[in-house]
Design goal:
It is built from 19 helices and 26 strands. Strand 8 and strand 9 form a beta hairpin. The chain is of the alpha+beta class. The strands form 7 sheets. Strands 2, 6, 7, 12, 13, 14, 17, 18, 19 and 20 form a 10-stranded mixed sheet that branches. Strands 23-22-24-25-26 form a 5-stranded mixed sheet. The N terminus and C terminus are likely disordered. Bound molecules: adenosine-5'-diphosphate (ADP) and magnesium ion.
Length: about 850
């Protein structure tokens, strides 16, 4: 039946790549290496198994551009400093190796600053094998028993794979064995001690679900991209010690499936982990030597280790690889250790080295640009050209991003402070890379042969051999029971013992019975064949059914995966948005706080402004009040002084009139004396009765001129028993000062202007005279005198005393008082002047009978003013 199936089932063509619309984001992992012995400041903190936090180191103002001092980055997974190489491999590379074995491509690269642990992660060291040796080990652990013989698979030079027939393969093997230059077989070979124990046996792992009905072969190539040139690290070049040939660079080509490959690149078939290691190590050594010879920096180059796995189904017998190129599947896993991502300035390169460094940066720059454009195209639905061709690295991996295959990146970071700024750039690139999606590789098509033929055919063959050995010696009882039952179902043969030569009964009866049996057998064969045919067709139908069911399941799985991916995408988007919203919330919070502070400021300033305005208002009104008060004072003072001036003018007028009057009188008296000398008898004729209305010329009395003092002989009026009687003369012009500075004389005749009638009744006269003293205060003078009868029958007053009453400002009083005891420095009149007898006696007023005018007062003191 198996044989019949061969070639009958129609071959299904692999689905077109474009039909696959499922995509996965680039898986980005972050590995934090431990701090070096010389570094003490750590600026990275692993805060969860998907997130790290960067702190700006002391002394570096990270927030000068408005960035926050702490930034968080999330990845598919974060590996802290304690992560072992095995743990990293399990998460990052194992799924890629599984994919490789299941005919899917993979790309894994390490990215980071020099010294961040890229090589440690990718290659590792003895005892701490990295992703590369572990991947190789897993591949061989998985396909070990199913490997094809060497040279069965043979790479063509167009990135394809051929299957050689057994004879050609055998010839190639013999040729290899006879060549001494090629490495010896694994059994006789000594492993490089540097590479001896990359992986401990307990770490060994293998993939599940390896297709046992296929045959496998592993090919490796190792290239270096330096300064945008590709070098084959496995190329066998005859060594010329005199003139070593510089390595030749390789070019990139596109194969018929539009995949990029390095044209003419050596692909070495390897049959074990050790052999693969050795090949890798050979390339590594070559790289080291080239770097030393050409004075290159290894951190500036990208190294690419490509593992190709060829697999083809076994033929229906399960013996040999199917001789059909179309059935060969080739998958590859690229392991890339990228150059240090740091900027050129950090390398301190000079001259040509600087140019190289610049180019290396250029290829990483191109990588970043490609990722950016891809992301933009995918997110915004744009169709911008991705500049893969701008650098060899991106050009070589173009298919991974455009076509299908898993892409994973391990971002290595060194938490030391010196790397902080570079690390920030690495983080940004890594975050961006996560947003790029790559088409998911589809499952390998089913080749059409029944599964499990390698084992079952083997078992069948074993069984056949055993049976053949057993043939010839089976006893009755050992017949298979089915056969026994079949034989027993026939009618028993008649007795076939011939009785004699003429027995013609037995033989014909036997013949008949045998013929009958033959007929039955014929019928049974027919029946059997009929049933077998039926069964066959039923089985074929079932086979078809199963196949279509399988296809249906496959489709459903695809749909499920699509849905899963959609969910995952949406989850990722939610995560991203949540992160963003958290960040925005934080920013809003800060802005709110700032706003509050400003508002507080504004309020306090407004408050201050208001209080200042109020104060200003108050001061203004105070000023206005002061102004009006001052104006009041000024007008008061003005009025007062106007009045005073008027009064003084009046007083002066009066005084002048008095003087005039006194002089007049004197003249008259002189005239009278002169005329008296001529006619002496005329004097007694002066009628006394005329005294009430005497004309002015007659009321004249001798003037108290100094040369003619008041007449002594005139008798003084006798003082009455009740004491002296006073004429109290208060001019109407006096200012009313109430009781202050007012003489209070009992029993006095108060007059406003002196008259003869009042004077005749009294013997004392007092004039209350007000004037303004030199200090501006009003001072009151009491000018006292005695009243005499004149010879002419009138009344005359002789002034005897002046009393001065002064009101003093208490503040200036003291100084006044002090001054009063001595002669005034300003030459002012002294009170004492008025008390000396000479002056007193020189003042006299004669009042003519009937006169209404008060006696003038003489300011003799003024004329006698002492000069200082
Ligand atoms: P890169 O390749 O990025 O320039 P390397 O892988 O050469 O960096 O690492 C530099 C040094 O740091 C090496 O000595 C390596 O052993 C050490 N190192 C890197 N990562 C780790 C790690 N995760 N654990 C321990 N040592 C590490
Ligand atoms: Mg390195």
């Amino acid at each position: 039946m198996i044989r019949q199936a061969k070639g009958k089932t129609p071959r299904r063509h692999p689905p077109k790549k474009t039909s696959n619309n499922q995509k996965d984001p680039v898986g980005v992992y972050c590995r934090v290496r431990p701090l070096g012995a010389d570094d003490d400041e750590c600026c990275i903190e692993v805060i969860s198994n998907t997130t790290i936090q960067l702190h700006a180191p002391d002394g570096l103002k990270a927030n000068r551009n408005g960035e926050f001092k702490e930034t968080q980055y999330s990845f598919k997974k974060v590996f802290g400093i304690k992560t072992t190489q095995r743990e990293l491999f399990e998460d990052v590379a194992k799924p890629l190796v599984e994919d490789l074995i299941h005919c899917k491509n993979g790309l894994l690269f390490t990215y980071g600053v020099t010294g961040s642990g890229k090589t440690h992660t990718m290659t590792g060291s003895p005892g701490q094998g990295g992703l590369l040796p572990r991947s190789l080990d897993m591949i061989f652990n998985s396909i070990g028993p199913y490997q094809a013989k060497r040279y069965v698979f043979k790479p063509d030079d167009k990135n394809g794979m051929e299957v050689q027939n057994q004879v050609d393969a055998l010839l190639d093997r013999q040729k290899r064995d006879s060549q001494s230059t090629v490495p010896k077989t694994p059994t006789t070979r000594r492993i490089d001690p540097e590479f001896a124990d990359m992986i401990s046996p307990e770490d060994a792992c293998r993939a599940d679900g390896v297709d046992e009905d296929s045959s496998y072969s592993v090919f490796v190539s190792y290239i270096e991209i330096y300064n945008n040139y590709i070098y084959d690290l496995l190329e066998e070049t005859p060594f010329d010690p005199i003139k070593p040939k510089p390595p030749q660079s390789k070019i990139l080509r596109e194969d018929q499936n539009h995949n990029m490959y390095v044209a003419g690149c050596t692909e070495v078939e390897v049959k074990s982990t050790e052999e693969a290691f050795e090949v890798f190590w050979r390339g590594q050594k070559k790289r080291r030597i080239a770097n030393t010879q050409l004075n290159r920096e290894s951190s500036r180059s990208h190294s690419v280790f490509i593992v190709k796995l060829a697999q083809a189904p076994l033929d229906a017998d399960g013996d040999n690889v199917l001789q059909d190129k179309n059935q060969v599947n080739v998958s590859q896993l690229c392991l890339v250790d990228l150059a240090g991502s740091e900027r050129t300035s950090r390398t301190r390169a000079e001259g040509s080295r600087l140019r190289e460094a610049g180019n290396i940066n250029q290829s990483l720059m191109t990588l970043r640009t490609c990722i950016e454009v891809l992301r933009e195209n995918q997110m915004c639905g744009t169709n911008k050209m991705v500049p893969y061709r701008d650098s060899k690295v991106t050009h070589l991996f173009k298919n991974y991003f455009d076509g299908e295959g898993k892409v994973r990146m391990v971002v290595c970071v060194n938490p030391k402070a010196d790397d902080y700024e570079e690390t920030l750039l690495v983080m940004r690139f890594a975050e961006m890379t996560q947003e790029v999606e790559v088409a998911r590789p589809v499952d390998r098509p089913i080749c059409g042969f029944t599964a499990g033929r390698r084992q079952k055919n083997q078992a069948f063959k074993d069984e056949l051999t055993r049976r053949l050995e057993e043939r010839g010696g089976p006893v009755d009882g050992e017949f298979p029971t089915v056969l026994n039952q079949l034989l027993q179902s026939f009618p028993p043969l008649p007795p076939c013992e011939v009785s004699g030569p003429n027995d013609d009964v037995t033989l014909p009866r036997l013949i008949e019975a045998l013929e009958k049996r033959h007929r039955v057998r014929q019928m049974m064969i027919e029946e059997y064949n009929k049933t077998a045919d039926m069964l066959k067709s039923v089985l074929q139908e079932q086979d078809g059914n199963i196949l279509s069911k399988e296809n249906f399941i496959h489709e459903q799985r695809g749909k499920l995966g699509e849905k899963d991916k959609m969910i995952q995408n949406q989850k990722n988007e939610i995560d991203r948005l949540e992160k963003k919203s958290k960040m925005l919330e934080y920013k809003i919070d800060i802005l709110q706080k700032t706003t509050n502070i400003y508002e507080e400021d504004k309020r306090s300033l407004q408050h201050e402004l208001e209080s200042r305005e109020q104060r200003l208002q108050r001061e203004m009104s105070e000023k206005r009040r002061m102004e009006s008060r001052m104006q009041g004072i000024v007008t008061d003072a003005k009025l007062k002084w106007e009045k005073e001036c008027e009064r003084r003018v009046n007083a002066k007028q009066l005084e002048m009139q008095n003087k005039l009057w006194v002089k007049d009188e004197k003249l008259k008296q002189l005239k009278a004396i002169v005329t008296e000398g001529k006619t002496e008898n005329r004097q007694p004729q002066r009628p006394s009765r005329e005294k009430d209305k005497a004309p002015p010329k007659r009321s004249a009395s001798p003037s108290p001129v100094p040369t003619a003092p008041p007449v002594r002989p005139l008798h003084r009026r006798s003082h009455s028993a009740g004491g002296e009687r006073w004429v109290d003369h208060k001019p109407t012009s006096n200012v009313d000062l109430d009781t202050v500075l007012q003489p209070n004389i009992p029993n006095a005749i108060k007059v406003n202007a002196p008259n003869e009638k009042a004077l005749s009744k009294c013997d004392k006269y007092v004039l209350t005279h007000q004037e303004v003293a030199s200090d501006g205060e009003i001072q009151t003078k009491l000018i006292k005198g005695e009243v005499f009868k004149t010879r002419g029958g009138g009344q005359a007053v002789q002034f005897t005393d002046i009393e001065t009453l002064r009101q003093e400002n208490p503040v200036v009083a003291s100084s006044r008082k002090r001054r009063s005891s001595e002669s005034g420095p300003d030459g002012g009149p002294m009170e004492g002047d008025w008390t000396d007898v000479e002056t007193r006696c020189s003042v006299a007023v004669e009042m003519r009978a009937g006169s209404n005018l008060g006696p003038g007062y003489q300011h003799h003191g003024y004329t006698k003013r002492r000069k200082p």
